[in-house]
Design a protein that fits this description.
Layout: H1 6-11, E1 21-24, E2 27-30, E3 37-41, E4 44-48, H2 51-60, E5 62-64, E6 73-77, H3 79-92, E7 95-97, E8 103-106, E9 113-115, E10 119-129, E11 141-143, E12 150-151, E13 173-184, E14 196-204, E15 225-230, E16 236-246, E17 261-263, E18 268-271, E19 274-278, E20 288-302, E21 305-306, E22 313-315, E23 321-323, E24 327-340, E25 343-344, E26 357-368, E27 371-387, E28 390-407, E29 410-411, E30 417-419, E31 427-438, E32 449-452, E33 470-478, E34 491-493, E35 516-524, E36 543-545
Parallel strand pairs: 2-4, 5-7, 6-8, 7-10, 8-10, 9-11, 10-16, 11-17, 16-18, 16-19, 17-20, 18-20, 20-24, 21-25, 24-26, 26-27, 27-28, 28-29, 28-30, 28-31, 29-31, 30-32, 31-33, 32-34, 33-35, 35-36
Antiparallel strand pairs: 1-2, 3-4, 12-15, 13-14, 13-15, 22-23
Length: about 550
Amino acid sequence: MKYMPLMFLLCFASAINAQQKTPLGNVVISSEKGETRIYEENSQLRMNVSPKDVRKYKTAGLVRYSDFGAKADGKTDDINAIAATHAFANAHGLRVKADDNATYYISGKERTAVIRTDTDFGKAAFIIDDTEVQNRHAAVFTVSSALKPFNLQAVTSLKRNQEKIDASLPGPCLITVTNANVKQYIRFGLNQNNGSSQTDIFVVDKNGKVDMNAPIIWDFDQITEITALPIDENPLKITGGRFTTIANKAESKYTYYNRNIAIRRSNVIVDGLEHRITGEGDHGAPYGGFINIGDCSYVTVKNTVLTGHKTYSTIGAAGKPVTMGTYDLSVNRALNVSFVNCTQTNDINDNTYWGILGSNFCKNLLYDHCTLSRFDAHQGVANATIRNSTLGHMGINAIGSGMLLVENSTIRGRSIVNLRSDYGSTWQGELVIRNCVFVPANGKPGNVSLISGSYSGQHDFGYTCYMPQKITIENLRIEDSQHPENYQGPAIFTNFNPEMKDDSYQEKFPYVKTREVVLRNVTTASGKAVRVSDNTFMFKDVRIEGIK
């Protein structure tokens, strides 16, 4: 047989001979007599690995980029050698290791290296040149699974907190579901839009039982698409690597660059990676996250150094100037994602750099022992924890549901938690702030609110908007010694709606207010007592324990 299916190749690897070829990750692999080489043919990357070299690499249990022609001189484009190395490693289940003293140059060529095996970037340097990019959407590396998704057509509806779906599965699966006939997260403000299709993502076992640590959060009366992606049992590890992006010089508009490491496989650990940015000028297009995590679960990024991107402005959807979000971390439609002991190279309080994380449609996000400029959940997170961390000038921004826990941390934003007004300042659940220090606006003078947001009641976001049902704040120190002369003390709530002064104000889409606030051991550097809000009418029915 001239062409052999990949599964057959893997099961009977010893039978490789000169006539067997297989495409993998857009790389065509052959094993013919002669030299080992990689080459392009009509833009298709091809590689021939001699039978002798196949045996050598399999005996070693790993391959290196230099095995397939990487020059590693910091000037010669090594992306073909890198992509080929991973394709061969994927076909034979081999580890990939970079050479520690190497500097790999990666041009703007449209070529993605697919990672499916453990990869040690070690102390090697990688220069990613974005000054001339063929396809800004193409990742440099994609971490993917060999397991294939499949449709679940028998499931036609879902209910919030449903504990089981009617499906028999090959093993634990990640389920993504969409109802294109319902729009939610209908954004308000300068970046207004018509919303996103109703979506959810959750994990089930082989019997269809839902992991209730990340429950279904919406009622789906109708489903237009539902997909199951089997979850890999064994963790895939990516370690080390010193990456530098030479920034694009494109026009400053919403043409996001995704020249990154895209993680699209569940059960992944990234450990010890560093990413820096150079070449940022007075304009440029934004970035969608150097580490971009999506459609997966159980991902941990630890001991990693990142860099905030310079902020540029453009004209937004409302026809007015806006600053563009640009990220080094991005998480979309993902569950159980942890950032542990992560820092950034630039000052977390320098507002010329945008906040480092953006996320959408996530559940169970964690910062632990991180020093970063921002935590942000745009189109909702179900359950988020920030602990043992320091947050910089953009602080904690979130909408969503479940438990939002902030503990043993220092927050240097304008508030401890900002409930994003462009998505309805909504949190359907509980907020706990415990054993924290709040340095408002990094110590700049100003009035202080612990929880900020805005809600007029006149815009339809596609869902009912809530404030946290219960807020518990205990052992909080507020460093508000720098304040204006007329300062009245820190408010629990900012003035969410200055127009709501009495019962005559009518909300078309009523806001469900907080029921209870519990304060324990909240102290201020100013000596001023904590108060409810400038808008006492709006919060008159909130039960507050621990305020004088």
